[in-house]
Amino acid sequence: MTHARQHTIQVVAHRGASEDAPEHTLAAYMKAIEDGADALECDVRLTADGHLVCVHDRRVDRTSNGRGAVSALELADLAALDFGTWKGREDATESPDWGDREYTSVLTLERLLELVADAGRHIELAIETKHPTRWAGQVEDRLLQLLRRFDLADPAPDASPVRVMSFSARSLQRIEAAAPTLPTVYLTQFVTPRLKDGRLPGTTRIAGPSIRIVRHHPTVVLRLQQAGHQVHVWTVDDAEDIELCARLGVEAIITNRPKQVLSHLGRL
Ligand code: G3P
Ligand code: CA
């Protein structure tokens, strides 16, 4: 595979290896680690009893056999659900087997941090706070509390294995105020005048534009880079988009298919 520009891009597994395994489960993250992903992406939400769990949607309906909002359920309620069998149900001739029940149970952020700590190689973690404004700082407080327990909240500058991402500038500002050396990523799917100028909110140094922005407004990437920001693009699954990101020299791509992307980049 040839590229116009040689560049080592960090390959981040979006919700784990979520094309192959049920998103946000141990099965998906173990597959991503096995596939060679450099980093793992996860979304976090607070349960009714204050635990951070890795779930993308506000409700559990799409990705489990249960119903209801994550915020209205306790961890024990979530632990009784199956977050695996929905995956592949459409065209499967038989129920997919994702292994032991633990592999498709609700995944706490704590368990994911343990998995990364025990992976046996350097793996980074990109944690996205979902709907944090509703919780008036509780998501960030709990997140920092957990990161502190794993000694990850106050890294040496430019040497952090963890970063916090959000579409909410307010959420990032809370993190930046409490943990100034923890890197933050401002996610966006809109091209604002501020973004066109290469500016990010607060002290955020990493931009997380959607691939649509990168496709239609590549100059935005250049402005961000000129302003000294890293650029992490989501969600990059196709050859053309990988090539585009490589040409533009972005630092990270977030993908549902880490194995295929690594292979496309000539790293497998
Ligand atoms: O990594 C950023 C990306 O995950 C944001 O979109 O909806 O997949 O959380 P979403
Ligand atoms: Ca996400």
From TrEMBL:
PANTHER family found in the cross-reference section: GLYCEROPHOSPHODIESTER PHOSPHODIESTERASE 1-RELATED, GLYCEROPHOSPHORYL DIESTER PHOSPHODIESTERASE
Domain GP-PDE: 9-265
InterPro entries to which the protein is assigned, alphabetical: GP_PDE_dom, PLC-like_Pdiesterase_TIM-brl
Name used for this protein in its record: Glycerophosphodiester phosphodiesterase
PROSITE patterns: GP_PDE
Top-rank lineage group of the source organism: Bacteria
SUPFAM superfamilies, sorted: PLC-like phosphodiesterases (SSF51695)
Organism of origin: Streptomyces solicathayae
